[in-house]
Amino acid sequence: MKRKFSDRANWRRILRKSYSCLSMDGDEFKGLVTFYRIHDLREPLWKEYNGRRLCLADRGYLWMQHFPKGEQFVVTTMFDDKGRVVQWYIDVCKNQGLTDQQVPWFDDMYLDVVVLPSGEVFLMDEDELEDAVRSGDISHKDANMARKTAGKLLSAIRNGRFRYFTLSLKHRKTLADRMGGYQGS
């Protein structure tokens, strides 16, 4: 199991960034929201889905993460330099927490759900989950929890009940203004 940190302090691709974290306790969302704005980087990050290449990280891109309190997933919304959603990346996790420096982290359970603005949905890294079970990195119980969580996420997405699509757009607009211009240009 790999612990991942929202400030991506060790991401060598990035040369200059802005980062902030905001705690929310409202009716719509309880948890933490982070903003990671890329100002300069060594090279853009590209990913291919169904033969189509997407740029996930480049100058001016914003990665906003939602760490919902009490949930076993974290949602990263990747916005391009124009403020358009590139993808929603949902990490299934065992735990979430905060470092002493107040940086949110999560223990990654390998399974990920990717949703593109076109509506395409992908369940990713099932092979990595199986490898982790075989190697003893995670237990069968934890793997079953990860599969169950991914199943619930996929069901909510298919049934139009995954509220983070609209929340991410709303929070980018309202919170970014408060956070000092994290909105797309």
Jot down its keywords:
single chain, 185 residues, alpha+beta, 8-stranded antiparallel sheet, two-stranded antiparallel ribbon, globular, disordered C terminus
Description:
This protein has 185 residues and is α+β, with helices and mostly antiparallel strands. It is built from three helices and ten strands, in the order ββββββββββααα. Strands 1, 2, 3, 6, 7, 8, 9 and 10 form an eight-stranded antiparallel sheet that branches. Strands 4-5 form a two-stranded antiparallel sheet. Strand 2 and strand 3 form a beta hairpin.
Estimate the mean pLDDT confidence: 93
The total strand number stands at 10
Low-confidence stretches: 181-185
Radius of gyration: 16 Å
Largest sheet: 8 strands, antiparallel
What order do the helices and strands follow?
Answer: EEEEEEEEEEHHH
Amount of beta strand = 35-45%
Annotation field: number of helices = 3
| Large-scale geometry | globular
Helix content bin = 10-25%
Q: Helix/strand-derived class?
A: alpha+beta
Please give the alpha-carbon distance between the first and last residues: 37 Å
